[in-house]
Please model this.
Amino acid sequence: MTKEFFRSRRAKVLAVSFAAAAFAVTGGAALKSHARAEAYRNIVNNTYQHAFAELTTAVAEMDAALQKSAYATSQPLLAQLCTELFGRAMSAQMAIGELPYGNVELAQTASFAAKVGDYAAALSKSTAAGDGTTEEEKENLRALAAASGQLSQMLQDLQADIHGGTITLEDLEQAEVRLAQTQEGGETAGSTFQNMEADFPEVPTLIYDGPFSEHLSTQQQPKALEGLEEVTQEEAREAAAAFMGLKPEIFTAVSTGEGAIPYWSFSAVVDGGEVYIEVSRQGGRVTELMNARPVGEATLTAEEGVEAARAFLAAQGYEDMEPTYHISQDNILTVNFAARQGETLCYPDLIKAAVALDSGSIVGFEAEGYLMNHTQRAMEPPAVSEETARAVLDPDLECLSHQLALIPTAGKYEVLCHEFKCQLEDGRHYIVYVNAQTGSEEKILILIEDESGTLTI
Model:
């Protein structure tokens, strides 16, 4: 046999060996990757099961706190139970957020937990103020307890089925596939969550000082538009053009919308940017403006921008508007204005105006707060003097200024307060609101101030 034969044979053996080695390496990597994926899947499934267990526990504890609070007669005990109730409701919401599409398919459960938590916070506040508990509030607590008891039992039954292997929780990928099929019109079985929510217990109607109160959706109407006539789409187009000092024919109708203030909307191309504007169908007032034109280098200071915004509002008929806070981003200054009635600043009557600092033109406007709340109010004089209210302030706070202010509550009610702007030794600023009728602290805000402007938290 020749050398060439042996060389050829050795080459084949090496090739087969390398191929086998490569296959072994690839196969090993695939096995390792599969094992890693399986381990990850187990971790995710365990996380979902843990989250569901946390939800079941939180709702059970929420149910227990509700049952106790419904029959508590001691104000300190009720305040303690409301605090506990709020914490359990927050735990339930956090657990829902960890489940795949929990906030979509557990929407009623999430909404119930949010309502219970907020209602508990409102009761805790009124209890701390010494207002006591009304019979209506007691009935609400009993009705919430009945609903939470049913929900808790449903969750416990589901958890037992999960532990028994009768049902399994979907992972994120499975939920995505099922939801995509549903959106495409396919017939798919509902998830465990959907089946549970179909039998969700009846929840009582709550009317209280909070964001979930029924009065917010059934009673609130735009006060500044009361008595004004409906406008046609063409009249709304003319109002949009007049607001911007432009010709009506450049505006194109976009849509009509509902909501708190039904509107006509229009768009136009102005100065190289698209303008979008909404006009209320009642009264023909501009509710919102967004101008996307490019903004160049700033030529105006923040103070000049504030004055440009004030002048624009006055030209549109918004008199007695006081600038409160402003912030500058990308050479656009956004200024918050509140209406002033006599000596009182009315924060619910809010207008936001955005000024382009390259020219002083208005590139943004939002007036829903003003249109919903502005009216001539019959205000009672403060029962608590400025001096008495000032004595409530913490001694470490130096008072810099004072004014009367009307502030909104969580339930869109209004409270007349003494507003004190204060400062600590290190220069940090706070706003303290003292109720002008009761003399108790109503709210404290922290001012976040930097070169771009001022925000409150």
Summary: The longest strand covers residues 344-356. The mean pLDDT is 84. The longest helix spans residues 3-69.
